[in-house]
Amino acid sequence: MQAFDEATEALLCALTAFEVARRLLEDDRDRLDVEGKVEAAIQRFGVSLGGAAENLEVGFDHTILSALYLPGGAPKSCCPAVICLSSDEDKRTMLLGRLLPLAIKHGMSVLIVAREELVKYSPGESKILLSLCLDHLSSRTEVDRRRIGVYGDGLSAEIATNFAAFDKRVAAAVCDGGLWSSARTLASIGWITGAACEETEEEVSPRRSRVARRLDCPALVVAGGRGLVSVSEAIKLHADCTAEGIPLDLMLPEIVSAEHGEYFENFVMSDDCIFDWLDRKLKR
């Protein structure tokens, strides 16, 4: 058993190292090589657990969504689960490779959905498909149906917000808090009127928190870094929600400097903070 635990720890460290390398590489062929190594490592991990990683499909009518599922927790346990929506840059397998160490650490099941598949459908269809994903998780014996959250990475943060507002079974959401919807509404007003919208902060504030008020679960907004949300708008939304008693938290990722004036998000620390937050919110 000790040997298995040590091998598992080594594999999880390797997955994190692969993700760091993938972000630093500029050549597409090198990146594809790293992605291939990640996929092979995840397959080996699944085999060691008896084929734990599972490809599944949900759908209605002629609408189909593929997902990648990995159960968490101890055998015969009833654990929380998170529906994870990838950014534009990540395939399902790559996001699973990045989040696998955290899923194991916190004893969570994860169901990975690629953004590129969701955006093929209308917003309404996407919400129904994600609800079917939640149905699937709720039906599994190892998942506590009362403790299922959603995490939208990058541009998928908006999808996570809309889904959490649509399906009241969602117990926690890492999302954009409705900021993208608010910005789009403001831009539409400017386009229709043909002039820049010059509303006061008192007029903008209720619109900014409009979607957040529809959430029946705690929310975490990740601002800056690879996130969709600007830091200044996120701070204003957090202040609005605090004043209204809406349970919305704010996280600012750590940005580290590199050579030639480049900056990178410390994704390891960011992911760790996100899953620590999910762990707290999804406790019994």
UniProtKB/TrEMBL annotation:
The record's listing under InterPro entries reads:
AB_hydrolase_fold
The name of this protein is: Alpha/beta hydrolase
